[in-house]
Amino acid sequence: MKPTPTKDKITADMTIKDVIDKYPQTAMVFMKYNVGCIGCLAASFEKVKDIATVHGIDAIQLVKDLNAAVSNQ
User: Fold this and answer.
1) Residue 48 maps to which CATH number?
2) How many folded domains does the chain comprise?
3) Contact 35, 51 (CB under 8 A)
4) How far apart are CA 73 and CA 69, in angstroms?
5) Is the Cα torsion angle 45, 60, 29, 25 positive or negative in sign?
6) CA–CA separation, 48 and 52 (whole Å)
7) pLDDT category, 35, cuts 50, 70, 90?
8) What is the 3-state secondary structure (H, E, C) of the chain?
9) CA distance 37 to 72
10) Is the pLDDT reported for residue 2 higher than 60?
11) Cα–chain-centroid distance for residue 17?
12) Containing domain of residue 49, as a range?
């Protein structure tokens, strides 16, 4: 059975660097959540879900907001 395709462009399993590199407009969303490590070394390997946990952020809502920022792309 094939996995159901998702309409979301960004997932919780993507690294922060991948998200920012592919969708630069998401930087504002990370800043809204006070995630200041978007340009640091950890961004290369930290996944969106991991950084949400570290910062006490709801990962599901963060991913929704990130996808909303790129919804017109």
Assistant:
1) 1.10.3910.10
2) 1
3) yes
4) 9
5) positive
6) 6
7) confident
8) CCCCCCCCCCCCCCEHHHHHHHCHHHHHHHHHCCCCHHHCHHHHCCEHHHHHHHHCCCHHHHHHHHHHHCCCC
9) 25
10) no
11) 9
12) 16-69
CA distance 48 to 13: 6
pLDDT at 3: 45
Domain-located, residue 3: no
Tell me how far apart the alpha carbons of residues 3 and 62 are, in angstroms, rounded to a whole number: 23
Interatomic CA distance for residues 56 and 61, integer angstroms: 12
What tens digit of pLDDT does each residue of 12-33 get?
999 999 999 999 999 999 999 9
Q: What is the pTM assigned to this prediction? A: 0.83
